[in-house]
Amino acid sequence: MGGKFDYIESNLLKLKQKIQKVCVNCGRDPKEIYIIAVSKTFPVDAVASAMDYNQLDFGENRVQELLGKEEELRDRIIHWHLIGHLQTNKVKFIVPFVFLVHSLDSLKLAQKINSEAAAIGRTVKCLVQVNTSGEDQKSGCEAKYALKLVKEISLLENIRIKGLMTIGKIMADEKDPAEREVVRGNFRQLRELFEEIKSHSIPGVDMKYLSMGMTSDYDIAVEEGSNMLRVGSAIFGKRD
Fold it and tell me: Which of 51, 99, 50 is nearest to 79 (CA)?
């Protein structure tokens, strides 16, 4: 199978080998880790190529772009993850097919997802996004309100909370140990929150996924307990 996206196979292989190495070093099983291939800005052919190499889960930031790709790949088995900020007026478009929404960060958004899901008899799996870095430009509820939000959402019949998501602080220098420690702190905070919410055994809440870690910091995320990595450029290459 020749083609301009053949490099994706070796990128996926390299990524899996690196994740395996990190897992071995911190005593984890690599089989526990889900890789979400973040395909935003890359064409459908790139997604199809990754699918040919057994990649099943794909993450998109923008609803418009996700809808276009979903339509073209509808006849294939694929799990679409919405990982970007979701506006209430876009909810109805993704509810019929989305596998997991990573960016649920308010009761208002949850109520909208719930009503759209109820209308078509579907239950939508979601992660609550928590802003652990305190950066204003990032979405996510404040950590201190996360438990309360999960409890409120748990009462909605057509949503299932499946865990938490965060984005670590954006690093100016990805090799700077001090910056990496800040990111580690962000991930550790989410992990502790995850365990705390889990300990409450809230009915209808299944704390299964801890979505944290991207190309620049997935190694730290794995060390801190992540089991869902959102990796784009390490798989698809640099974005234009």
Answer: 99
Cβ contacts of 61 within 8 Å, gap of 6 or more: 38, 40, 82, 83, 84, 85
pTM: 0.96
Q: Domain span at residue 122? A: 7-232
Query: For position 14, which CATH number holds?
Result: 3.20.20.10
Domain assignment of residue 116, yes or no: yes
- For residue range 99-145, what is the model confidence (pLDDT) as tens digits? 999 999 999 999 999 999 999 999 999 999 999 998 888 899 999 99
Confirm whether 1 is domain-assigned: no
Residue at 102 is within a domain: yes
221 three-class SS: helix
